[in-house]
Structure formats: structure tokens, C-alpha cells
Design a protein that fits this description.
By secondary structure, this protein is of the alpha/beta class. Helices cover 44% and strands 18% of the residues. The chain has 13 helices and ten strands. Strands 1, 2, 3, 4, 5, 6, 7, 8, 9 and 10 form a ten-stranded mixed beta sheet that branches. A hairpin with a 3-residue loop joins strand 6 and strand 7 (132-135). Helix 7 packs parallel to helix 9, helix 9 packs antiparallel against helix 10 (257-278) and helix 10 packs antiparallel against helix 11 (285-298). It starts with a strand and ends with a helix. 37% of the residues are buried.
């Protein structure tokens, strides 16, 4: 068994793949300990991405697997397909336009084994084309999170020290299989549907202070362009509704009802407005009222009890929704964000 399976979704990635691959091949852990699974997500570059992946596979047949998808499923779908074949003890994700520090796999794996951790999380750098690389200002400090009972899990859930992105972590594969998680497909903001449910299965998580992943701020990329599209706000909301529906099928819904409700209401109703405000986007209030109606149907009563004092601004929003979704009050709330 390989120590780590690394999953790399690729779409028209010829420009970025060489640097990404060199960072993977240069891992201090050694290629013999890695299983690299590259997924060509129905690239439209006349076979260039697939040809490059085929060359990599021929060079390292014992360590590289390539998958060719007939239809584009976005990053979430590509990762889901690769997860079917991953056989490593642990799993990591790298985007094709990013790269990793040469010690990422070794440091994360050593920490996982040392602490018998289900998840290892690490810091990342931000790379701006033509400007250079800087440290992510939201640095996470070294910490070991151990969950032994319900109260400790509640503290971990509400502390949000484990983020909802997928690529800054190493995961125990057996935990992924037990949880039965998958990414959302055909959309952006696909990661919470995979990451959030795992927080109810993790027994121990390690946070490393090291900057081990380099996240390229690709202004010409589809993700950056899509984030300016109003429809992506709805995609984000739909993913969070999918998270809510998934959690309703789990045995955790009763024990952690308040925590799951707080997460859903925050990400489904509040973040829609917050994301729009930060991007200076006009909100379609008729569309937003439909989200509010959905929230009222899903959550009764639509209020937080245990965490009312933590989500103060959010609770004001929920009060507006409960009172009948007055558009003028919603617009005032939006302007004051």
C-alpha cells in the first residue's frame, strides 16, 4: 500500500502541469511512497492535457494513474472519480495550477502517524502572477485537536479551526470510506459537501504551522471568473443545502442539531449576502426570498438557541426572515454588512 494517494483534477492544464508535477515528483518522501491520480476533466485543448498526462504515466507507471472523463464534471466530479481508485493509507488533493513544497507529504504523513490523526491540516502560500508569493495572513497555529466526547466535538465544530477547503489537508482514507462523503459536482464551492461531514468522524486532527501548499491566484482561471457571476451565489447556496440534506441522513443530526443548524443557516442565508457584498454584486431579492422560504421550511423554529450570542448579526437576519422576508428590511441589512 502506498502511503499517500494524491488526486489532481486537470482541465486545460498544460500551462500549469509541469510545475505542479515537478513539485510532486520532488517530494522528500519519494515517488515510491506516492500514488498520483491525475484526472483529465474533459479538457477542450485538442488532447494536449491528455497527451501530457500520458507522458507522465509512461515515465512513472508504478506511481501514476491517469483517468480520462468523457464529460466535464468540474473539480468536484474529477475528485470523486479519482477517489474510487485511491488506495493509499492517506489521501491529499492538489489542483493542477498549484504546487506544493517538497516536504508536504513527508511532514503531513509523519504528523499523522505520530498522533494517529485522521486529518492533518497545514498553512498555505498565495502566489500572484508577476508579483510573487506571500504567506496567507490567516495563519493557523500548531495544535492537536482531540475529540473524546460530545462536548469536545461541539467545541471543535464551533471553533472552526479546521477549515472547509480540501487541498490544505491530509485525510485518512479509511475515514473517508466510513463517512461516505463526496464533492458536489458541476459547480464551484464544491468542497463543503466533502469536508464538513468529516468533522463528525474525526477523532484527532493535527494542525501544522508550516506553509506547505502554494495556491495560485489565477485571475484568468474559471474559478476566479465564475466568482463574479451571480449564479455562483446560488451554486454556493445549493451546495450548502446539499450539506444539510446529507447531514439529515447521518446519526449526528439529533446529537448536534444546534451546531448543524448554525452551520446551515450561516452558510445558506448569511454567506449569500456576505459574498455578494464583498464582490459588490447586486442581489436578486426575489431569488433570495426563495432561499429564505426554503430555510423556513427546513428549519423550525428558524432561530439559534445555544449560539445566539455568537451569531448576533446572523440572528438579526433570521429574525427578518421569520417576520415575513420584508425586502426593504433585507436591503437595509445588506447595506449595513
Amino acid at each position: 500500500m502506498k502511503k499517500i494517494s494524491v488526486i489532481i483534477p486537470c482541465f486545460n492544464a498544460v500551462k500549469w502541469l509541469p510545475k505542479c508535477f515537478v513539485s510532486l515528483a520532488g517530494q522528500t518522501m519519494g515517488m515510491d511512497n506516492l500514488e498520483l491520480i491525475f484526472v483529465n476533466d474533459a479538457s477542450t485543448d485538442e488532447g494536449a492535457t491528455w497527451a501530457m498526462l500520458s507522458e507522465l504515466e509512461r515515465a512513472y507507471p508504478e506511481s501514476i494513474m491517469i483517468i480520462d472523463l468523457p464529460q466535464n464534471r468540474r473539480q468536484g466530479g474529477a475528485r470523486n472519480e479519482a477517489l474510487k481508485y485511491a488506495s493509499g493509507e492517506y489521501v491529499a488533493f492538489v489542483d493542477a495550477d498549484d504546487w506544493i513544497c517538497d516536504t508536504l507529504c513527508e511532514k503531513a504523513y509523519v504528523a499523522a502517524k505520530q498522533y494517529d490523526a485522521d486529518i492533518v491540516q497545514f498553512n498555505h502560500l498565495l502566489h500572484f502572477e508577476g508579483k510573487g508569493t506571500i504567506e496567507n495572513p490567516l495563519k493557523m497555529q500548531a495544535e492537536v485537536l482531540t475529540v473524546r466526547d460530545v462536548n469536545e466535538r461541539r467545541k471543535m465544530l464551533m471553533g472552526e479551526k479546521l477549515t472547509y477547503g480540501c487541498w490544505n489537508k491530509l485525510y485518512r482514507r479509511s475515514m473517508l470510506e466510513k463517512a461516505g462523503v463526496q464533492f458536489a459536482e458541476h459547480c464551484i464551492y464544491e468542497e463543503p459537501l466533502f469536508v464538513y461531514p468529516l468533522l463528525f468522524y474525526v477523532r484527532r486532527a493535527v494542525i501544522l504551522p508550516d506553509y506547505l501548499y502554494v495556491y495560485r491566484q489565477n485571475i484568468s482561471g474559471t474559478m476566479r471568473n465564475d466568482m463574479k457571476d451571480r449564479q455562483t451565489l446560488m451554486q454556493h447556496a445549493k451546495v450548502q443545502l446539499a450539506v444539510w440534506n446529507f447531514m439529515k441522513t447521518t446519526p449526528f443530526m439529533q446529537e448536534y442539531a444546534e451546531e448543524i443548524k448554525a452551520y446551515f443557516l450561516h452558510t445558506y442565508l448569511y454567506e449569500y449576502l456576505d459574498f455578494a457584498k464583498r464582490r459588490d454584486m447586486k442581489v436578486d431579492w426575489e431569488e433570495y426570498c426563495k432561499l429564505a422560504e426554503n430555510a423556513l421550511m427546513e428549519v423550525q423554529p428558524l432561530r439559534l438557541n445555544r449560539y445566539q450570542n455568537i451569531f448576533v448579526r446572523q440572528s438579526t437576519l433570521y429574525e427578518i426572515v421569520r417576520d415575513g422576508m420584508d425586502i426593504e428590511r433585507l436591503e437595509r441589512f445588506y447595506q449595513e454588512l
